[in-house]
């Protein structure tokens, strides 16, 4: 996880991307690991059932090989997160609601639920407690994220 640690350090220093010397070093290490992965997971021949897992591992290493720039994007653009954990956390309440109730009763109800969840997720990311955000919302003074000046 040296890439992630280096990216975190660069973010703390206010940089927008990892230093080129670090990018080259991490990319070279990544390429070496992909070469090892390709050698360990050759394209299986035939369509036998036992080849299923070999096919999946081959497809995975092929994706790492073919989409290197996308896989390492967080290194070139420090605004991109290392994992998708935040996106999964944002979706979890909706999946839980669907699991418990099976569906929303109306399109309007689903939209209201989505708007409220999005609002609370945004306030949480800006360290605004949910109760404070809700009180402001219901008092007609909704919290809004700070505007970012155009670059």
What would your notes on this structure say?
This protein has 151 residues and is mainly α. It folds into 2 domains: 2-76; 85-138, no CATH class. 66% of the residues lie in helices and 0% in strands. The longest helix is centred in the N-terminal third of the chain and has 21 residues, at 20-40.
Q: Mean pLDDT across all residues, rounded?
A: 86
The number of helical segments is: 8
What is the β-strand count?
Answer: 0
Number of separate structural domains: 2
Characterize the largest beta sheet: strand count, sense, and whether it forms a barrel. none
Rg on CA atoms, Å: 22 Å
Briefly note the structural class of the backbone.
mainly alpha
Strand-residue fraction? Answer: under 5%
Low-pLDDT stretches are none
Q: What separation lies between the terminal Cα atoms?
A: 32 Å
Label the overall shape: flat
Give me the strand/helix succession. Answer: HHHHHHHH
Helical amount among residues, as a percent range? Answer: 55-70%
């Amino acid at each position: 996880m040296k890439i992630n640690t280096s990216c975190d350090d660069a973010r703390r220093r206010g940089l927008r991307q990892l230093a080129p010397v670090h990018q080259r070093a991490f990319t070279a290490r990544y390429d070496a690991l992909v070469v090892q992965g390709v050698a360990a997971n050759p394209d299986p021949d035939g369509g036998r059932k036992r080849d299923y897992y070999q096919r999946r591992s081959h497809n995975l290493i092929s994706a790492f090989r073919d989409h290197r720039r996308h896989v390492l994007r967080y290194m070139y653009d420090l605004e991109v997160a290392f994992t998708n954990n935040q996106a999964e956390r944002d979706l979890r309440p909706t999946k839980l609601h669907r699991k418990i109730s099976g569906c929303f009763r109306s399109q309007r109800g689903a939209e209201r639920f989505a708007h409220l969840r999005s609002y609370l997720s945004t306030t949480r990311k800006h360290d605004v407690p949910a109760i404070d955000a809700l009180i402001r919302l219901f008092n007609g003074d909704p919290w809004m994220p700070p505007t970012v000046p155009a670059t």
